[in-house]
Amino acid sequence: MIQVYPNIYQLEIPLPNNPLKAINSYIIVSEDRNLIIDTGFNIEICRDALMKGVQELGIDLKKTNLLITHLHSDHSGLAAALNQEGVKVYAGAIDGNMINEMTKREYWEKFEAYNTLFGLGKDGISFEEHPGYKYSPKKPIDFDSLREGDILDLGEYVFQVVDIPGHTPGHIGLYERKHKLFFGGDHILDKITPNIAFWGFDQDILSVYFNSLKKVYGYDIDYLFTAHRNVLRDHKRRIDELLQHHKKRLDEIMEIIKNERRTVRDIAARMHWDLRYDTWEDFPGPQKWFAAGEAMSHLEHLVSVGAAEKAKENGILYYQQKPSF
Fold this sequence. Notes:
The chain is of the alpha/beta class. It has 2 domains: 2-243, Ribonuclease Z/Hydroxyacylglutathione hydrolase-like (Metallo-beta-lactamase, Chain A, 4-Layer Sandwich), CATH 3.60.15; 253-321, Orthogonal Bundle (Arc Repressor Mutant, subunit A), CATH 1.10.10. Helix content is 34%, strand content 23%. It contains 11 helices and 15 strands. Strand 1 (2-5) and strand 2 (8-14) form a beta hairpin. The longest helix is centred in the C-terminal third of the chain and has 22 residues, at 235-256. The chain starts with a strand and ends with a strand.
């Protein structure tokens, strides 16, 4: 654990058997109330690391609140356990509701339909391999829902809630205008690109993410505290890089579907991934889920802007570049 700003501490929590390796949990200490931001997985090693940080700072959980930036299990995993110990838990209204839905097996059984839809049936993977299923809270949480513009007063810091959907449908961040601080969860990461997955046909989630990036671009930020890897000191540079990355990703997919219609799975298998595997067959099941979800969000964006078309046969989606595009 290190102090990254006065009374703000970064606690690295290990994520075993996960390419991310660790999550940065943050603890903000004040005279009246403390705030923990994100928790790690719902497993003993993460709980031990978090509690060690709490004990090292000598803070009282009864005087400590928890904020979950978004629904992913590496951020929300321990929220239910802390809530049962009397910790008030904040989350955005959308993701908070989804976290509680994820405690039900029926939520995850819907993933079997995506298994077919994406063409992943030939890989023989199951939602039970998904880290969201394995490491998420197992009991509903009595959330205090936060919305855009809500204020969290922590002594010398006054944080404003900012809606930054895209990485998840209800991702939120905290902005401290006076000190130019931003806690952004997985919205903007240094050196790695946040996974932008498919969350349903009711919205073009990639466009939503682009709009959230452009929103934060205009903020005056000196320190952007990320959930993985490094603290960012130049968020505008990184946003430009992320937008360029997704442009290249869209161009890559357009080339893949240029002359032949393909399933989401077969498109994902042909895309470039910064992972240490030689072939698609080598990908672990969870990485196939993430890759297919990211391919799908980009494909639906291409359909939304009129660059691609899709057809469904035997429950499987196929995508191809529009002939006139």
